[in-house]
Specification:
Helix content is 19%, strand content 44%. By secondary structure, the protein is α+β, with helices and mostly antiparallel strands. A hairpin with a 5-residue loop joins strand 6 and strand 7.
Length: 100
């Protein structure tokens, strides 16, 4: 959706509801809906000095797959994306790195 001023609001990614404006760097993560996965993701970010600005979680059905949109305060390096992909219950990770 267009929200004016050349800005957009993304409300759905891969069948998951979300709210994402694409005005900052972000991660789009698909994972299994299991306890501890979000903790594992945030630990990788913290261990690499990446601050979470906002986080939006969505799932279709409890215990199935889920989506996590994390807006960060800076660029997420490729090696961090690769580390996130190694987390057991993470299915995919996409980074949106906008120029500062």
């Amino acid at each position: 959706s267009s929200i004016g001023g050349g800005r957009i609001l993304i409300t759905r990614i891969n069948n998951f509801e979300t709210e994402f404006t694409a005005t900052s760097c972000a991660l789009i993560i698909n994972q299994y809906d299991k306890k501890g996965v979000i903790s594992d993701i945030s630990k990788v970010l913290a261990d690499n000095d990446i601050n979470i600005g906002t986080m939006k979680l969505s799932r279709e059905t409890k215990g199935e797959t889920a989506s996590c949109i994390i807006e960060t305060d800076g660029i997420v390096p490729a090696y961090v994306v690769d580390t996130l992909k190694e987390i057991k219950d993470v299915l995919s990770v996409k980074a949106i790195n906008l120029e500062a």
